[in-house]
Amino acid sequence: MAEVTLHVEGMSCNHCKMSVEKALKGLPGVAAATVDLAAKTARVTYDPAQVHLDAMKKAVSDAGYEVK
Q1: Which of 13, 30, 35, 64 has the smallest CB count inside 10 Å?
Q2: Which domains does the chain have, with CATH numbers?
Q3: CB contact at 8 A, 60 and 3
């Protein structure tokens, strides 16, 4: 397993936090996703053989937020 921290822009409330977590956790190979609303980050634990960073960025973007 690997871990990455994404910097997510556009989150302003707990609903935003939950939306980003749900989008990331819905990807095959993502074991965990924890969003820190104050820091505007998402820490993702994943299997690099199953999911790539581009897929994570797209999932967050599709949820309406921007990965920096």
Answers
A1: 13
A2: 2-67 (3.30.70.100)
A3: no
In three-state secondary structure terms, 16 is helix
pLDDT tens per residue, range 11-57: 999 999 999 999 999 999 999 999 999 999 999 999 999 999 999 99
Q: pLDDT band for position 64 (50/70/90)?
A: very high
Walk across the sheet containing 30-36 and list its strands. Answer: 30-36, 41-46, 2-9, 66-67
Residue 55: partners with Cβ closer than 8 Å, 6 or more residues away = 27
Calpha distance 34→46 (Å, rounded): 12
Structure tokens at 21: 């977590």
Longest dimension (CA), the chain: 32
Rounded to whole angstroms, how far apart are CA atoms 68 and 62?
14
